[in-house]
Amino acid sequence: MKPTILITAPQHYSSRLEASFKRYQDQVSIVHIPMVQSTIATNNKQMQELCTHLHEYDFVVCLSRKAIDAMHYYGHNHDDLTQTQFLAIGKDNDYLQDKLGVTPPFIAEESSPLGIAQALEARGFTKGCRIVALSPAFVDLEEPQTVPVFIKRLKELNIDVQRIDAYVNMASELSERKKAYDLIIDQQISTVVFTSGSEVVAFKEGLEEVYGTDADSVLELIDVACMGPYTAAQAKLIGLKVDKIPTKFHSFDDLTAYLIASKP
Protein backbone atom coordinates (compact mmCIF):
# COMPACT_ATOMS: atom_id res chain seq x y z
CA MET A 1 0.00 0.00 0.00
CA LYS A 2 1.33 3.43 -0.95
CA PRO A 3 2.06 5.85 1.89
CA THR A 4 -0.19 8.91 2.04
CA ILE A 5 1.23 12.40 2.47
CA LEU A 6 -0.89 15.22 3.88
CA ILE A 7 -0.11 18.68 2.52
CA THR A 8 -1.41 21.71 4.40
CA ALA A 9 -0.49 24.61 2.10
CA PRO A 10 -3.04 27.30 1.17
CA GLN A 11 -4.95 26.77 -2.06
CA HIS A 12 -2.83 29.20 -4.10
CA TYR A 13 0.29 27.17 -3.28
CA SER A 14 -1.08 23.64 -3.06
CA SER A 15 -1.78 23.27 -6.79
CA ARG A 16 1.94 23.72 -7.51
CA LEU A 17 2.92 21.33 -4.74
CA GLU A 18 0.45 18.69 -5.92
CA ALA A 19 1.76 19.08 -9.47
CA SER A 20 5.27 18.47 -8.18
CA PHE A 21 4.12 15.22 -6.58
CA LYS A 22 2.51 13.95 -9.80
CA ARG A 23 5.75 12.44 -11.08
CA TYR A 24 5.70 10.20 -7.99
CA GLN A 25 2.03 9.22 -8.12
CA ASP A 26 2.94 5.54 -8.39
CA GLN A 27 4.85 5.81 -5.09
CA VAL A 28 2.70 8.03 -2.85
CA SER A 29 -0.84 9.29 -2.49
CA ILE A 30 -1.57 12.93 -1.66
CA VAL A 31 -4.30 14.44 0.51
CA HIS A 32 -4.66 18.22 0.64
CA ILE A 33 -6.32 19.97 3.58
CA PRO A 34 -5.27 23.64 3.84
CA MET A 35 -4.59 24.94 7.33
CA VAL A 36 -4.65 28.60 6.26
CA GLN A 37 -6.76 30.80 3.99
CA SER A 38 -5.20 33.89 2.39
CA THR A 39 -7.29 36.77 1.06
CA ILE A 40 -6.64 40.19 -0.44
CA ALA A 41 -8.67 43.06 1.00
CA THR A 42 -10.29 45.21 -1.69
CA ASN A 43 -9.75 48.50 0.13
CA ASN A 44 -6.25 48.40 1.59
CA LYS A 45 -5.28 52.04 2.02
CA GLN A 46 -1.63 51.21 2.75
CA MET A 47 -1.33 49.38 -0.56
CA GLN A 48 -3.12 52.17 -2.41
CA GLU A 49 -0.74 54.73 -0.93
CA LEU A 50 2.29 52.57 -1.70
CA CYS A 51 1.39 52.48 -5.38
CA THR A 52 1.57 56.27 -5.56
CA HIS A 53 4.93 56.39 -3.73
CA LEU A 54 6.84 53.49 -5.27
CA HIS A 55 9.56 55.87 -6.45
CA GLU A 56 10.48 56.58 -2.82
CA TYR A 57 11.75 53.04 -2.19
CA ASP A 58 14.90 51.28 -3.33
CA PHE A 59 13.26 47.85 -3.15
CA VAL A 60 9.82 46.35 -2.68
CA VAL A 61 10.15 42.89 -1.12
CA CYS A 62 7.27 40.48 -1.79
CA LEU A 63 7.50 37.90 0.97
CA SER A 64 5.09 35.43 -0.65
CA ARG A 65 3.24 34.68 -3.85
CA LYS A 66 0.12 36.21 -2.31
CA ALA A 67 2.04 39.44 -1.74
CA ILE A 68 2.80 39.50 -5.47
CA ASP A 69 -0.91 38.98 -6.17
CA ALA A 70 -1.73 41.91 -3.90
CA MET A 71 0.84 44.10 -5.65
CA HIS A 72 -0.69 43.19 -8.99
CA TYR A 73 -4.21 43.87 -7.71
CA TYR A 74 -3.36 47.37 -6.53
CA GLY A 75 -0.54 48.34 -8.85
CA HIS A 76 -1.14 46.87 -12.31
CA ASN A 77 -2.33 50.24 -13.68
CA HIS A 78 0.62 52.22 -12.32
CA ASP A 79 3.42 53.14 -14.71
CA ASP A 80 5.94 53.18 -11.84
CA LEU A 81 5.69 49.40 -11.50
CA THR A 82 8.30 48.65 -14.15
CA GLN A 83 10.58 51.35 -12.72
CA THR A 84 10.58 49.73 -9.27
CA GLN A 85 13.04 47.09 -8.07
CA PHE A 86 11.13 44.09 -6.71
CA LEU A 87 12.58 41.16 -4.77
CA ALA A 88 10.97 37.79 -4.06
CA ILE A 89 11.82 34.40 -2.59
CA GLY A 90 13.01 31.42 -4.63
CA LYS A 91 10.65 30.34 -7.40
CA ASP A 92 8.37 33.26 -6.58
CA ASN A 93 10.78 35.31 -8.68
CA ASP A 94 9.42 33.55 -11.78
CA TYR A 95 5.90 34.43 -10.67
CA LEU A 96 7.02 38.01 -10.06
CA GLN A 97 8.08 38.29 -13.68
CA ASP A 98 4.94 36.61 -15.01
CA LYS A 99 2.49 38.58 -12.86
CA LEU A 100 4.08 42.03 -12.69
CA GLY A 101 6.26 41.97 -15.79
CA VAL A 102 9.34 42.96 -13.80
CA THR A 103 12.74 41.32 -13.49
CA PRO A 104 14.33 41.30 -10.04
CA PRO A 105 17.79 42.92 -9.91
CA PHE A 106 19.10 39.81 -8.14
CA ILE A 107 17.85 36.55 -6.64
CA ALA A 108 19.02 35.58 -3.17
CA GLU A 109 20.96 32.32 -3.03
CA GLU A 110 18.96 31.13 -0.01
CA SER A 111 15.20 30.92 -0.58
CA SER A 112 14.04 32.73 2.53
CA PRO A 113 13.44 36.24 3.85
CA LEU A 114 16.76 36.09 5.71
CA GLY A 115 18.34 35.01 2.43
CA ILE A 116 17.16 38.31 0.95
CA ALA A 117 18.63 40.17 3.94
CA GLN A 118 21.96 38.38 3.39
CA ALA A 119 21.93 39.25 -0.31
CA LEU A 120 21.20 42.91 0.42
CA GLU A 121 24.06 43.07 2.90
CA ALA A 122 26.46 41.35 0.50
CA ARG A 123 25.66 43.96 -2.17
CA GLY A 124 26.11 46.91 0.17
CA PHE A 125 22.43 47.83 0.43
CA THR A 126 22.43 48.69 4.11
CA LYS A 127 22.46 52.13 5.75
CA GLY A 128 20.19 54.55 3.94
CA CYS A 129 18.52 51.87 1.84
CA ARG A 130 14.72 52.22 1.82
CA ILE A 131 12.69 49.02 1.64
CA VAL A 132 9.02 48.16 1.93
CA ALA A 133 8.19 44.57 2.90
CA LEU A 134 4.83 43.21 1.74
CA SER A 135 3.68 40.69 4.31
CA PRO A 136 0.47 39.16 5.67
CA ALA A 137 -1.69 40.43 8.49
CA PHE A 138 -2.93 37.71 10.82
CA VAL A 139 -6.54 37.44 11.95
CA ASP A 140 -7.36 35.10 14.85
CA LEU A 141 -4.01 33.42 14.28
CA GLU A 142 -0.74 33.93 16.12
CA GLU A 143 1.89 35.42 13.84
CA PRO A 144 4.87 33.14 13.10
CA GLN A 145 8.35 34.53 13.67
CA THR A 146 9.38 34.66 9.99
CA VAL A 147 8.48 38.25 9.14
CA PRO A 148 9.36 39.82 12.53
CA VAL A 149 12.81 38.18 12.40
CA PHE A 150 13.31 39.48 8.85
CA ILE A 151 12.30 43.03 9.80
CA LYS A 152 14.56 42.88 12.85
CA ARG A 153 17.51 41.81 10.71
CA LEU A 154 16.98 44.63 8.22
CA LYS A 155 16.91 47.14 11.06
CA GLU A 156 20.15 45.67 12.42
CA LEU A 157 21.65 46.46 9.00
CA ASN A 158 20.45 50.08 9.39
CA ILE A 159 18.02 49.64 6.52
CA ASP A 160 14.99 51.92 6.59
CA VAL A 161 12.23 49.31 6.36
CA GLN A 162 8.47 49.71 6.34
CA ARG A 163 6.16 46.75 6.73
CA ILE A 164 2.86 46.77 4.86
CA ASP A 165 0.22 44.11 5.47
CA ALA A 166 -0.67 43.37 1.86
CA TYR A 167 -3.12 40.54 2.50
CA VAL A 168 -4.69 38.55 5.34
CA ASN A 169 -3.88 35.09 6.67
CA MET A 170 -6.42 33.31 8.83
CA ALA A 171 -6.80 29.74 9.96
CA SER A 172 -9.12 27.49 7.98
CA GLU A 173 -12.36 26.54 9.69
CA LEU A 174 -11.71 24.22 12.61
CA SER A 175 -14.04 21.63 11.07
CA GLU A 176 -11.74 21.51 8.02
CA ARG A 177 -8.60 21.19 10.10
CA LYS A 178 -10.24 18.43 12.15
CA LYS A 179 -10.55 16.36 8.96
CA ALA A 180 -6.75 16.26 8.89
CA TYR A 181 -6.53 15.28 12.55
CA ASP A 182 -9.08 12.49 12.04
CA LEU A 183 -7.10 11.05 9.13
CA ILE A 184 -3.95 11.08 11.25
CA ILE A 185 -5.67 9.38 14.20
CA ASP A 186 -7.14 6.76 11.86
CA GLN A 187 -3.56 6.05 10.69
CA GLN A 188 -4.35 6.99 7.10
CA ILE A 189 -1.48 9.50 6.92
CA SER A 190 2.22 8.64 6.99
CA THR A 191 3.67 12.16 6.73
CA VAL A 192 2.31 15.68 7.20
CA VAL A 193 4.12 18.42 5.29
CA PHE A 194 4.25 22.08 6.30
CA THR A 195 5.52 24.69 3.84
CA SER A 196 5.17 27.78 6.03
CA GLY A 197 5.07 28.93 9.63
CA SER A 198 1.43 29.97 9.22
CA GLU A 199 0.42 26.38 8.45
CA VAL A 200 2.34 25.17 11.49
CA VAL A 201 0.65 27.64 13.84
CA ALA A 202 -2.86 26.99 12.48
CA PHE A 203 -2.35 23.23 12.69
CA LYS A 204 -1.09 23.36 16.29
CA GLU A 205 -3.72 25.83 17.51
CA GLY A 206 -6.53 23.68 16.09
CA LEU A 207 -4.96 20.51 17.44
CA GLU A 208 -4.86 21.94 20.96
CA GLU A 209 -8.40 23.28 20.69
CA VAL A 210 -9.75 19.85 19.73
CA TYR A 211 -7.57 17.53 21.81
CA GLY A 212 -6.27 19.70 24.65
CA THR A 213 -3.46 18.08 26.63
CA ASP A 214 -3.54 15.02 24.35
CA ALA A 215 -2.65 17.08 21.27
CA ASP A 216 1.00 16.02 21.02
CA SER A 217 0.12 12.32 21.07
CA VAL A 218 -1.80 12.69 17.79
CA LEU A 219 1.47 12.98 15.85
CA GLU A 220 3.34 10.14 17.55
CA LEU A 221 2.89 7.60 14.74
CA ILE A 222 3.58 9.85 11.73
CA ASP A 223 6.47 11.90 10.37
CA VAL A 224 6.36 15.69 10.38
CA ALA A 225 8.22 17.33 7.48
CA CYS A 226 8.96 21.03 7.08
CA MET A 227 10.10 22.89 3.98
CA GLY A 228 13.37 24.31 5.20
CA PRO A 229 14.88 25.31 8.54
CA TYR A 230 12.71 28.36 9.18
CA THR A 231 9.40 26.52 9.01
CA ALA A 232 11.00 23.79 11.13
CA ALA A 233 12.16 26.37 13.68
CA GLN A 234 8.61 27.71 14.00
CA ALA A 235 7.28 24.18 14.50
CA LYS A 236 9.82 23.46 17.23
CA LEU A 237 9.18 26.85 18.85
CA ILE A 238 5.53 26.00 19.46
CA GLY A 239 6.21 22.43 20.52
CA LEU A 240 5.69 20.33 17.40
CA LYS A 241 8.13 17.55 16.68
CA VAL A 242 10.00 17.71 13.37
CA ASP A 243 11.29 14.56 11.70
CA LYS A 244 12.29 15.70 8.21
CA ILE A 245 13.88 18.89 6.87
CA PRO A 246 15.26 19.00 3.31
CA THR A 247 18.69 20.58 2.98
CA LYS A 248 17.62 22.00 -0.40
CA PHE A 249 14.45 24.10 -0.19
CA HIS A 250 14.58 26.35 -3.23
CA SER A 251 11.44 24.86 -4.79
CA PHE A 252 8.62 22.38 -4.31
CA ASP A 253 10.52 20.03 -6.63
CA ASP A 254 13.35 19.99 -4.08
CA LEU A 255 10.87 19.22 -1.31
CA THR A 256 9.05 16.42 -3.11
CA ALA A 257 12.27 14.76 -4.27
CA TYR A 258 13.53 14.77 -0.69
CA LEU A 259 10.28 13.32 0.69
CA ILE A 260 10.25 10.50 -1.86
CA ALA A 261 13.90 9.68 -1.21
CA SER A 262 13.30 9.59 2.55
CA LYS A 263 10.00 7.71 2.64
CA PRO A 264 9.92 4.36 4.48
From TrEMBL:
Domain Tetrapyrrole biosynthesis uroporphyrinogen III synthase: from-to ranges: 28-250
A GO BP entry: tetrapyrrole biosynthetic process
MF GO annotations: uroporphyrinogen-III synthase activity
SUPFAM superfamilies in UniProt: HemD-like
Lineage: Bacteria, Pseudomonadati, Bacteroidota, Bacteroidia, Bacteroidales
Record InterPro entries: 4pyrrol_syn_uPrphyn_synt_sf, 4pyrrol_synth_uPrphyn_synth
Pfam families the record matches: HEM4
Residue stretches in coiled coil: none
Superkingdom of the source species: Bacteria
Organism: Hoylesella timonensis
Name of the protein in question: Uroporphyrinogen-III synthase
